[in-house]
Amino acid sequence: MHKSLWVSALAIVLASVGSTGAAAGQATDDIRSPQPPAGNPGAGAAGPIWRGPQALLLDSGPLVTHPGGGPAGADASRVQNSSFAMITLGFTASTAGPLRVTDDFTVPAAGWGVSTITFFAYQTGATACTLTDVRVQIWDGPPNAGGTIVFGDTTTNRLASCALSNIYRDTETTVANDQRPIQAATATVATNLAAGTYWVDYQLGGTLASGPFVPPITILGQTTTGNGLQWNGTAWANLTDTGSATQQGLRFVIDGAVLPVELQKFSID
């Protein structure tokens, strides 16, 4: 996992920019895609703001690159299109088609009781929270290299809540654009995981035709931010920025508790 482990609940979700609401068959939302209306740089989506979990186990990496740099003082998650020729705003992960995304995480020795996982996505042009569906699977290894599913499926809607993240996805040439407010979709998981490396695989649905698109982990000065994958309907492929051809990671937040001793697994020689 080429990304940082965060141990404080940061309500970081990012900004917007001018690009498409693509069909489910499109793997990415890129700067070169058809542009939506420019929007009002001083406006923004309205609704409850996600504040992060009470019992944080993992925040897999940052989205915010410019705190307060989005519309109306919100945060921005800025694509580095001028600095590094990156052009992918988000990756399609839609329940309207086969496209899903996945990334890995590591559970330490004690094991975790996972309550919820929060995922971050946008639908271009949203003015409020529009995500209504989250489907989640957890694998005990890489899904493209022998992993097996230990939790979830691709049919059950596990959405518990949706809130705005106060982050907008934009670019270096569309600063403070308000067309891509990032939403935080929290899924109920309620499962125990023993120590090991897992992959969480997910897709989302919403009330708009656009996406949903999942913005990758974004770090200023870096073009490679992880080892995420995207299911294209027939195979898993690297989650790659279309412009820089560099692999990206995904932000998700796991809420729960370290397992008590009586629920941990031990081996006796």
Walk me through what this model shows.
By secondary structure, the chain is mostly beta strands. 1% of the residues lie in helices and 37% in strands. It contains one helix and 15 strands, in the order E-E-E-H-E-E-E-E-E-E-E-E-E-E-E-E. The protein has one helix at residues 81-84; strands spanning 28-30, 56-59, 75-79, 88-92, 100-107, 112-121, 131-139, 149-152, 159-171, 181-193, 196-206, 213-214, 229-231, 236-238, 252-258. Strands 2-15-6-10-9-3 form a six-stranded mixed β-sheet, with no helix packed on it. Strands 8-7-11-5-13-14 form a six-stranded antiparallel β-sheet, with no helix packed on it. 52% of the residues are buried.
Uncertain stretches: 2-26, 37-42
Number of strands: 15
Order of helices and strands: EEEHEEEEEEEEEEEE
* Main β-sheet, spatial strand arrangement: 2-15-6-10-9-3
Q: Main sheet?
A: 6 strands, mixed
Q: Which secondary-structure class do the elements indicate?
A: mainly beta
Roughly what is the average pLDDT, rounded to an integer? 86
Distance between the termini: 32 Å
Which outline best applies?
A: globular
Question: Mind telling me the C-alpha Rg?
Answer: 17 Å
Q: Helix fraction?
A: under 10%
User: With helices defined by DSSP (H or I, 4 residues minimum), what is the helix count?
Assistant: 1
What amount of the residues lies in strands? 35-45%
What topology emerges from the helices and strands here?
Blueprint: E1 28-30, E2 56-59, E3 75-79, H1 81-84, E4 88-92, E5 100-107, E6 112-121, E7 131-139, E8 149-152, E9 159-171, E10 181-193, E11 196-206, E12 213-214, E13 229-231, E14 236-238, E15 252-258
Parallel strand pairs: 3-9
Antiparallel strand pairs: 1-4, 2-15, 4-12, 5-11, 5-13, 6-10, 6-15, 7-8, 7-11, 9-10, 13-14
